[in-house]
Amino acid sequence: MYFINHEQINNRLAFLNVLAETSCEVVAQWQQGTPSLAWQMAQERVLHLAIETVTDVGSLLIDAFILRDASSYEDIVEIVHGEGAYSETLTATLLQLVKLRKPLVQDFVDLERGELHPLMAVLPDAFEEFKTSVAAFIKSELA
């Protein structure tokens, strides 16, 4: 029998709605012209929180279904994908996302802030697919 921390998973999946909405607001600011530094930093925070949320869910699934231990953020995405939790397309998007962690949390002083990151526009749809895929994966694993 598996122990799945449904509360933590569901809280994180619900938080993706906040990130999706904020992503749309950030994109809108860029479409209006050069956004302020505050909006540029808001973009960084959305990307950072998206990475942490997606990898938290992945880690919870790895723990719940006793999958092999991950050695990196990318590995978390690949392990869960390897179990059939989400599509190749979503996996590619998630890998692009988690590869941003080092620049966002370690190289932040030198980060180029003036451009809208291409992932910002696709995150809302990716989050929807991620939530649906995770729910379907849990259901299938418990069947």
For the largest beta-sheet, the strand count, sense and barrel status come to: none
Sum up the overall morphology in one term: elongated
What's the number of extended β-strand segments? 0
Rg for CA atoms: 16 Å
Straight-line distance between termini: 11 Å
Helix/strand/pairing category? mainly alpha
**Level of helix content?**
over 70%
| Poorly predicted runs | none
Helix segment tally:
6
Average pLDDT score: 96
Q: Beta-strand percentage? A: under 5%
Along the chain, the helix and strand elements come as: HHHHHH
Quaternary structure: single chain
Q: Could you list some keywords that capture this structure?
A:
0% strand; 6 helices; 143 residues; mainly alpha
Helix and strand arrangement:
Elements (H helix, E strand, L loop, with lengths): L5 H26 L5 H28 L8 H10 L5 H11 L2 H5 L13 H24 L1
Helix pairs in contact: 1-2, 1-6, 2-3, 2-6, 3-4, 4-6
General description of the model:
This protein has 143 residues and is an all-alpha fold. It has helices spanning 6-31, 37-64, 73-82, 88-98, 101-105, 119-142. Helix 4 (88-98) packs across helix 6 (119-142).
Quick recap of the structure?
This protein has 143 residues and is mostly helical. The protein has helices spanning 6-31, 37-64, 73-82, 88-98, 101-105, 119-142. Helix 2 runs parallel beside helix 6 (119-142), helix 3 (73-82) runs antiparallel to helix 4 (88-98) and helix 4 packs across helix 6.
